[in-house]
Design goal:
Layout: H1 2-30, H2 44-48, H3 50-59, H4 63-67, E1 70-77, H5 88-98, E2 104-116, E3 119-131, E4 138-152, E5 155-165
Parallel strand pairs: 1-5
Antiparallel strand pairs: 2-3, 3-4, 4-5
């Protein structure tokens, strides 16, 4: 009887070791280092190009289209308003007024930091040509900007956008 108990114990131990080894192999294959599940970091150029999509949204003249570029919990510190916008309604309201000036933006200098596969920051200087809706007179406005992006649901969205008029050289 002792012999049968030892044999059963040996078989149970061996089975447990085989099962543990199988689980370990499965966990290793599915771990974060697995190529099939690894998310790759975007390039700096890909992040810098997100501005082009935002600028194209401005060109539509539709505040809702521009607001679609922002996350639902985004913060907008806009160039020509003292009010901090923290929800979609506030962002739409800002762009309804800003778009009346038919803004056309272009980057002057950009510095991109890709933080990880789902977040990045694009900061620098841009210039806008604005058209007075009453007189048609055009003017150039240089500003500093910072866009913080997050990839949510497979889509890059602005989660924080700060823009301020570039101060005169001192």
């Amino acid at each position: 009887m002792k012999r049968q108990t030892r044999t059963r114990a040996a078989i149970a131990t061996a089975a447990a070791l085989v099962a543990a080894g199988t689980v370990t192999v499965g966990v290793s294959a599915a771990g974060p280092e697995s190529k099939s599940t690894k998310s790759t970091k975007p390039t700096k150029a890909q992040i810098a190009a997100l501005f082009d999509g935002w600028n194209a949204a401005l060109a539509t003249g539709d505040a809702e289209t521009v607001a679609d570029r922002y996350a639902s919990d985004a913060v907008l510190l806009p160039t020509v308003s003292p009010e901090i916008r923290t929800d979609r309604a506030g962002i739409v309201d800002y762009f309804e007024h800003f778009l009346a000036n038919k803004p056309q933006g272009k980057k002057i200098r950009t510095v991109v930091n890709v933080l990880d596969s789902n977040s990045a920051i694009d900061a620098g200087l841009y210039e806008f040509t604005l058209t007075d809706p009453e007189t048609g007179e055009k003017r150039e406005v240089e500003a500093r900007y910072t866009y913080e992006y997050e990839k949510r649901g497979g889509k890059w969205l602005i989660v924080n956008h700060h823009s301020s008029v570039l101060p005169a050289a001192g």
